Amino acid sequence: MIRKQYGIYLSLIFFILILASGTASASSPTPTVASKGSGSGVSTGETSIPFNASGARQKTFNFSSCGDKFSIQGYETGSDKILIPTDNENIIKVMEKFDSSLTFDSGDKTLIFTRGKDKKIRLKIDSPIGDFMGQKKTLSEPPRMIDGKIYIAPDVFAKCIFCFFGHDSKSDLYYLDSWVLDVDIETTKRGKVVLVARGTGKLKYRTLKLREPTRFVIDVMNASLDGKAREIQSPNMGPILISQHQLLGEDGNIVRIVIKPSEEAEIVMQQARADNFVEANLRPRQISAPVQDLDVQKITDIDVDENDNNVVITLKTSGPIQIQWTRLLDPDNRFFVDIPGAVFPQKKKEFNLKSDYLPGIRVAQFQPPPDPMVRMVLALESPKEVTIDTDKKNPNTVKIIVSKKTIDPDKAERKGFVVSYYKPAKGMIICIDPGHGGSDPGACNHKLGVYEHNITLDVAKRLKELLHKEGWTIAMTRNTNRDVTYPGSPDYEELGARVDVANDIKAQVFVSIHINAASNTSVNGISTYWYKISDRALASSIQSSLINGTGRRNLGVRRERFHVLRRSKMPSVLVELCFISNPAEAKLLDTPEFRQKAAEAIMDGLRAYARQKQMNTGK
Prior knowledge:
Blueprint: H1 2-27, E1 57-65, E2 68-78, E3 81-85, H2 89-97, E4 100-105, E5 110-115, E6 119-124, E7 129-132, E8 135-138, E9 144-146, E10 149-152, H3 154-161, E11 164-168, E12 173-187, E13 193-199, E14 204-210, E15 215-221, E16 223-225, E17 230-234, E18 238-249, E19 252-259, E20 265-270, E21 277-284, E22 297-306, E23 310-317, E24 322-327, E25 335-340, E26 342-343, E27 348-352, E28 360-367, E29 373-378, E30 384-390, E31 397-406, E32 415-419, E33 429-434, E34 444-445, E35 450-451, H4 452-470, E36 473-476, H5 491-504, E37 509-516, E38 526-530, H6 536-550, E39 554-559, H7 563-567, E40 572-579, H8 583-589, H9 592-612
Parallel strand pairs: 1-12, 12-16, 22-26, 33-36, 33-37, 37-40, 38-39
Antiparallel strand pairs: 1-2, 2-3, 3-10, 4-5, 5-6, 6-7, 7-8, 9-10, 11-12, 12-13, 13-21, 14-15, 15-19, 17-18, 18-19, 20-21, 22-23, 23-31, 24-25, 24-32, 25-29, 27-28, 28-29, 30-31, 34-35, 38-40
Helix pairs in contact: 4-9, 6-9
């Protein structure tokens, strides 16, 4: 009787345990995307769960981590449950990206993950409970020992090294990416304002310029935002929005930082302090002088004269120069005088002055050749009146006069440029505009890695060299990969600045070089655009020469209300050199030989136009 009752009680207990186990299993599915640093629960027990090797099957899994893709041979142990080997070389590289390492205590059968100096996480083989820096957390799958190798579930691995884990079921791709923990504004002691994004692992970024409305965008690639979308305030840029732009999408995980353009400041990406940072300097806007056709000059002498009312700095050079200047305001009142296309033979020189408002001046080679720049720093204690004087009779001398008079910082001009007297050559004055550049790369062929802003600049430089040989004077709106105004500027401001270069130097011809694109990849050919009646003859001459010189399909001469054509005061054209979206033409554009042909064809068109109009070509 007693034995029979005891057997019934045991059967009931066993039946209840089975029901409890089934209920728990059904109510706790494994999530597709795991949250940073959180387990599926906290438990007080650590009962080992034996591994059933017969229920697992080997399989190759595809991973992406911080933009790097690789495959791993592991085990599929059940629905949405997988195990990967901890000794795989790609997994070791992932740990390095997240400043993590792994050791194994064979006596205690314990995996020890270490991040940084003292953050340790301990997991026991076959145990469903992990010790996360003193906190007990339940694991989705215990670590296993299979054929002498240690295997771990990737979501558990992600928690141990503080990274994001996700699985895109459509592409069957597993992600081990960086968390973006915070995005903030930092102000240095010298008043420098820096936007800082910090991640748990290696970060990469791209910049974009979006329209309607105009925004400057920093996309932190292969990263996930720790928390909800939010907005921070910048003292000189206003509100900055941070959000998860894309999660498990076609381009992976992207955290987007959106900054509206400002008349007061510009965004300049800078070298980050470490791999897990992205940093941008939100500095007072710089003004770039027009890219005049000036030779590289030497700073031959610098003389400083102090008197009761001012400090006069006399700058002597080997030829005409351009000066770009920038004024900072409290708490940093320095005044920068930049001279692009200049070399300072002394490399560096300092002047210690008696003046209480200007105690020192520093001059140094700020950028080396082939794109040299000399920088003079006036270490002003407070905002003072600064005047830069040029002498048309002597283009090799510039005077910088610093008055002791204090100016109102609210009314102080913050930037500008000065060009010493420059007499052009005998030939035509031509302004070449390489389309796009800087924060606006233009059209691109992602498959081939071909970008419009690079091609237009290369063709423009080749055209410049050819026209030099003709004896003509050349100005370029840009000669490097930069914005003509500032990163994130509205289109009307950027395009207006390009036209201003041509108008200010009284160019006789303006040529804007672009690359076309279309959603239909079969579209191909070359076209040249005009707007003013005075543009048409120039457009016809260049288009005809381009077709003859390149052999591409003739899409004709077309009239459009492009900003650069409407605002220019001289005959102007906008050339669309082939379609970057067409595979065959994109390959052509990517070759130096075709770009040289295009430059030669434009030059031939300009030469024919000049003869037709009986213009002075310099020869």
